[in-house]
Write a structure and sequence with these properties.
Elements (H helix, E strand, L loop, with lengths): L11 H15 L3 H4 L3 H10 L5 H12 L4 H9 L2 H17 L3 H14 L9 H16 L7 H24 L7 H12 L1 H27 L17 E3 L11 H7 L9 E3 L6 H11 L4 H9 L12 E4 L6 H12 L3 E5 L5 H4 L13 H9 L5 E5 L13 H9 L1 H5 L1 E3 L4 E3 L5 E6 L7 H4 L3 E4 L8 H15 L12 H10 L5 H21 L1
Parallel strand pairs: 3-8, 3-9, 4-5, 5-8
Antiparallel strand pairs: 1-2, 6-7
Helix pairs in contact: 1-4, 3-7, 3-9, 4-7, 5-6, 6-7, 7-8, 8-9, 9-10, 13-14, 21-23
């Protein structure tokens, strides 16, 4: 007889239920928890939250324990098993008079259905659409605007899927809810542009009134005349006498004085053949990556390329590649460690707070002195998913789209700034946890690991990096001898460049030790 419940063997299904219940209790997402059930699961599924299946199974087991089809669905996670479970839940709703069962059935269909190409499942899609629209009418007024916009995009995107499925087939196969989120975001772009235009019109009206007050002897500071913008330059921050007033603003703008109404240069594109030659000399094992990145610069008078996401195993040299690219292109770089970043820091802090500061891309421009800097988002897949200070995933969306980056509303300056020329490069080991709206904005390329035959090409660059970090000139020491190279090759058979660097550091330390004894 087993006295301790902890000694009872658990099936895989039981473990899934426990994990699902734990995820719900530990999520800490109060705003999402306040949503109607079908909207809550729609949002979680659209974010590619892999715990959504266990969470829903735990709720089903709580309301209707002992349904064998629940375990079958968790094991397969396909549309057929999902629809079978949903039918059983509908039956329970009628026979046992449990209205919650009908809501759970809608949620099962929601996260199980693929794109609506099968006419037999068309009625299932319409059933879910009706449930989503009905829940949207009951959306609480207290939820944040960003979450409300996310819910609205998912609902309208799902409703449009039957006639727009062909537009997302290249990006999504299943589940349909992720395609709905992307489609809904696209549907809102025109309305966003129109709303921004109204906001800009109001801003222009405020400026006109400020000019009238100034002409009448008001106390508005006289704005500096804006010089003509020469070719190959851009004004990132323009004078706004309405929002750029007060002692608080003067404190914030102090490190950015060189940007106000000043045309900043755009670094010209260097000869790409020479850039490619130097990159290939060091990253020959990543030839596809080199050509993929440089192809976006062909024909551009100034450096500008679409957001780039390099995906590959740790130690392959993704970060080092981004740094070498920045050096060869001759542009400044701002590195953000995504594992320690959040939206509040990266996107800027509101002027009302004592820690107010502009967004990081604007600080990067101020430090570099030109507008087309490179922002490196290192280890993007390790960004925090907590929402206490906002997710880095969410705030990046406004920076990665040219239309929104052109007039980004900086919270510290409380005026729009032009960040459309900033170049973004992100690295990641995996992309499974990255939201689909974020992935949709990146060009993705797999970054391979070097092989054993790439050692000779890597060694000079690794030695140079070590000496630079130590503040030494490469001309002060001799290169690696054949015996030293052979010793390194014996212990490094390809793979991590970080491990290769550690081996080279050991060899150089041993050389220094022998020199000191003699």
């Amino acid at each position: 007889m087993i006295d301790d419940l902890d000694d009872l063997p658990l099936s895989n299904f039981d473990e899934d239920l426990i994990q699902g219940a734990a995820q719900d209790s530990a999520s800490g997402e109060q705003a999402t928890a306040d949503l109607p059930r079908v909207l809550r699961f729609a949002v979680l599924a659209s974010r590619a939250d892999h715990s959504v299946y266990q969470r829903l199974a735990a709720e089903i087991e709580t309301v209707c324990p002992g349904i064998a089809l629940t375990a079958t669905w968790i094991d397969t996670l396909d549309a057929a098993s999902g629809c079978a479970l949903a039918v059983e839940l509908d039956h329970r709703a009628v026979c046992e008079d449990k209205s919650e069962c009908r809501s759970l059935a809608d949620c099962v269909r929601l996260i199980s259905l693929a794109l609506p190409r099968d006419r037999a499942l068309g009625e299932e899609h319409r059933r879910v659409a009706g449930a989503l629209v009905a829940a949207l009418r009951k959306l609480p007024q207290s939820i944040p605007f960003a979450l409300a916009a996310e819910v609205e995009a998912v609902v309208y995107g799902w409703a449009a899927l039957p006639v727009c499925a062909h537009e997302v087939v290249g990006a999504f196969q299943t589940p349909a809810i992720r395609a709905a989120a992307m489609l809904g975001a696209r549907m809102a772009r025109r309305r966003i542009d129109e709303a921004e235009e109204r906001a800009f019109a109001r801003s222009r009206e405020r400026l006109r009134k400020a000019d009238e007050r100034q002409a009448a002897g008001g106390d508005v500071d006289t704005p500096r005349p804006v010089p003509a913008v020469p070719d190959g330059h851009v004004v990132v921050v323009r004078t706004d006498p309405v929002t750029m007033a007060g002692n608080k603003f003067k404190e914030i703008i102090s490190p950015l004085k060189s940007l106000i109404d000043v045309p900043l240069p755009l670094i010209k594109t260097p000869p790409l053949a020479e850039v490619r030659r130097q990159l290939m000399a060091e990253f020959g094992y990543a030839a596809n990556v080199v050509d993929f990145v440089l192809s976006d610069l062909v024909g551009r008078p100034t450096i500008a390329f679409r957001p780039l996401l390099m995906v590959g195993p740790p130690g392959g040299g993704k970060t080092r590649f981004a740094q070498r690219l920045q050096q060869l292109l001759g542009i400044g770089m701002w590195r953000t460690d995504s594992s320690g970043a959040d939206a509040a820091a990266f996107s800027g802090t509101d002027r009302r707070w004592a820690t107010a500061q502009p967004c990081h891309p604007l600080l990067a421009i101020a430090r570099a002195g030109h507008a087309n800097v490179l922002v490196l988002l290192d280890e993007l897949d390790k960004a925090a998913i907590g929402r206490d200070h906002g997710r880095l995933f969410d705030c990046l969306l406004g920076f990665l789209e040219i239309d929104s980056a052109r007039q980004y509303p900086d919270p510290a300056l409380q005026t729009t700034v032009d960040l459309r020329h900033v170049c973004y490069v992100a690295t990641a080991n995996f992309i499974d946890n990255l939201p689909s709206p974020l992935l949709d904005r990146f060009r993705q390329i797999v970054f391979p690991k070097p092989a054993e035959e790439d050692l000779q090409a890597l060694l000079p660059a690794v030695v140079t990096d070590i000496l630079r970090d130590q503040g030494m000139d490469q001309r002060w020491i001799d290169g690696l001898s054949p015996s030293e190279t052979a010793a390194i090759a014996h212990h490094w058979c390809g793979g991590s460049v970080r491990r290769l660097r550690r081996l080279v550091e050991i060899v150089l330390r041993q050389r220094d030790g022998q020199a000191s004894r003699h």
